[in-house]
Amino acid sequence: MAGAIVPHFQNDAGVPTIEIGVREFKCVGATAPFDHPHIYIDLGDDDVGICPYCSTTYGYRQYLAADQTNPPGHLVPQAAD
Q1: What is the dihedral of CA 41, 47, 76, 16, to 10 degrees?
Q2: Distance CA 55, CA 6 (A)
Q3: How many Å apart are CA 52 and CA 5, to the nearest integer?
Q4: Structural domain includes residue 4
Q5: Residue range 14-70, pLDDT digits in tens
Q6: pTM to 2 decimal places
Q7: For the CA atoms of the chain, what is the radius of gyration?
Q8: d(Cα 28, Cα 39) in Å, to the nearest integer?
Q9: For the chain: N or C, fewer Cβ within 10 A?
């Protein structure tokens, strides 16, 4: 994904599963200062991945755009790492 912006997702609400529209992303845990190390996750051909830090399950959904989540509100505004 060189040259592309990798979306970052957070889980302040503590929901068990977040549906997303991308297969490559970073999980930051919660909003800073309560975040965990920002971990890159690549689902590859899988539709489900689990963050090893916060145990959030991410489910790929083709019908969602790269900046959409279900439930809504889990995209982190893009900032430098």
Answers
A1: -100
A2: 20
A3: 22
A4: no
A5: 999 999 999 999 999 999 999 999 999 999 999 999 999 999 999 999 999 999 999
A6: 0.90
A7: 11
A8: 7
A9: C
In a domain, 53, yes or no: yes
Concatenating the DSSP letter of every residue in 47-80 gives SEEE-TTT--EEEE-TTS-TT-EESS--EEPP--
Between CA 32 and CA 35, with CA 34 as vertex, the angle to 5 degrees is 70
The total of structural domains in the chain comes to 1
Query: Measuring CA to CA, which residue among 53, 45, 46 is closest to residue 9?
Result: 53
In a domain, 80, yes or no: no
Which CATH number does the domain housing residue 61 bear?
2.60.260.40
Token reading at 5: 């912006």
